[in-house]
């Protein structure tokens, strides 16, 4: 950062809770390699032995990926894991906060958290949304997972003053599928377009995040009909088993994974690669001279 090189932050809940072993460590290493090959410095964020780390070493990544008792750490959990001196994978909310604190402006994730279905009664809305309202960073995400209430998530992002950009799309993506059925408020055609919006936000003195919604490639998305059926089954199973709170996302993801015989995992990894690559391009555009 001191040399003005582009830096991209990466979250670690995707490693500790989002992907099964051993693919989790492979995906984490691949994301970092992809950035390095593009001349971008990766900074994976996590908590190691109670220390919030921005820029995990290879050994620290391995430790989090293999750990038996690694906490899922959102912002509210940070003080607890730090005080206890334990390990944690940071969510989008906690990662965005820590990365920004370290001066990083661009962050890649697979899927952002959002408003859960039934939130009108459970109040289960990811802290990712509120965090983005107050952290001036750009997050690249394939929209939000269709396990969530996508229209409600977009409504909340609007309320929270988060700028949402579709990357070469008019449709907000549903992670596994290109189109979640809701339009994006604005679109950009390239990394330079996204960088221009970030610069404008900063010039305006706004403190909220820009969400760059990057859909999966058409040929890589889950079959739309299969996606619908698997999703309905996963939601029904979660309701039957009374899954709630921060266990909901990992439970649903695991169900979708098994019901698609692992194909959702390949989609997940393809989505992540695409987002990491795009974040690298935006960080590079932002590190260059102003147009
Ligand atoms: N979406 C995914 N995979 C994930 C997550 C979200 O496709 O692993 C993780 C992210 O770290 C996100 C967190 O920040 O789940 C949101 O969890 P919650 O809904 O409990 O806030
Ligand atoms: Mn929640």
Automatic annotation (TrEMBL):
Catalytic activity: D-ribose 5-phosphate + uracil = psi-UMP + H2O
Cited Pfam families: Indigoidine_A
Enzyme class: lyase
Annotated substrate binding sites: 72, 92, 126-128
Domain of life of the native organism: Bacteria
Binding residues annotated for Mn(2+), in chain numbering: 124
EC number: 4.2.1.70
Catalytic residues, chain numbering: 11, 145
Keywords noted in UniProt: Glycosidase, Hydrolase, Lyase, Manganese, Metal-binding
Record bears the keyword Cytoplasm: no
Signal peptide feature range: none
Cofactor info, note text: Binds 1 Mn(2+) ion per subunit.
GO function terms (MF aspect): hydrolase activity, acting on glycosyl bonds
Cofactor(s) this protein requires: Mn(2+)
Assembly and interaction partners: Homotrimer.
Family to which this protein belongs: Belongs to the pseudouridine-5'-phosphate glycosidase family.
Known function: Catalyzes the reversible cleavage of pseudouridine 5'-phosphate (PsiMP) to ribose 5-phosphate and uracil. Functions biologically in the cleavage direction, as part of a pseudouridine degradation pathway.
Protein name (record): Pseudouridine-5'-phosphate glycosidase
Species of origin: Actinomycetospora chlora
